[in-house]
UniProtKB/TrEMBL annotation:
Highest taxon, organism lineage: Bacteria
Pfam families: APH
InterPro entries in the record: Aminoglycoside_PTrfase, Kinase-like_dom_sf
Organism: Mangrovihabitans endophyticus
Ranges of residues in domain Aminoglycoside phosphotransferase: 56-208
Protein name: Aminoglycoside phosphotransferase
């Protein structure tokens, strides 16, 4: 009998795997509605929807393997990473969805200021690491042309086979937003792969904004990850990303 594997689980949503079937459970049915809509609109291969209930969706497995995992060396080839970059560009060139996605605005700036204060006050990170990354993160607060973004383009969500993208998972955060956020999420903790991704993406990339999003995303996520059972201090993960800016 196939065992039940917990892929991810926290108070908002959980994903379970049983054999080649993934069950996605979301506390907000409207978020699943938005994910289904984004999957239908995306110009990239997505996992097949086997069935759908108000708060649960069953998805079939994608062919190929994920690009890798955060904190571990990626087994994927440079060509596979370039293909992921090209896929991101295809998505970003698609017609905009109605739903808003990730971007750095005044609300995010206020959240960042508060989070930086807490990281230092609670002794989670040294003040100099926080200050340096806060300075780097400032480049994310810039004018940009909104694009159709995935919103959570982690390497575990991008599957490739024979150096081509066979599918992209988890469209729950998709919407119109900053395309450099997607590229930063894809390469977080794998800075050595950025050149490969940009080779596939093309000249529209903004490296300074990608670097800024590495710092911004990591600063905002460290405490949340620790409070929800993840380890941002693991080798190659968010704290290492922040320390690498020093």
């Amino acid at each position: 009998m196939d065992e039940v594997q917990v892929v991810v689980a926290h108070s908002e949503r959980a994903t379970l795997r049983v054999g080649d079937v993934f069950l996605k459970v979301d506390a907000d049915p409207a978020r699943l509605d938005a994910e289904v809509e984004a999957m239908a609109a995306a110009p990239l291969p997505t996992a097949p929807i086997l069935w759908r209930k108000p708060s649960v969706m069953a998805l079939g497995a994608l062919p190929g393997k994920a690009l890798g995992r955060l904190g571990e060396p990626s087994p994927a080839s440079p060509a596979a990473w370039a293909a992921a970059g090209a896929a991101a560009r295809t998505l970003h060139d698609a017609p905009l969805p109605a739903r808003p996605g990730r971007s750095a605005d005044s609300r995010v700036r206020a959240e960042l200021e508060s989070e930086c204060e807490l990281l230092v006050a609670c002794g989670v990170l040294p003040a100099d690491v926080v200050a340096r990354n806060r300075a780097v993160a400032e480049a994310a607060f810039r004018a940009f042309t909104p694009a159709f973004t995935h919103g959570d383009l982690q390497i575990t969500h991008v599957f490739t086979d024979d150096d081509r993208v066979t599918g992209v998972l988890d469209w729950s955060e998709a919407g119109h937003g900053d395309p450099m956020f997607d590229l930063a999420t894809l390469t977080l903790g794998h800075e050595d792969r950025l050149a490969d991704v940009l080779a596939g993406y093309g000249t529209a990339a903004e490296p300074d904004a990608i670097h800024a999003w590495w710092s911004l995303r990591s600063l905002l996520n460290v405490r949340w990850l620790a409070e929800h059972g993840f380890d941002p201090f693991a080798p190659g993960c968010e704290v290492d990303v922040l320390q690498s800016r020093m």
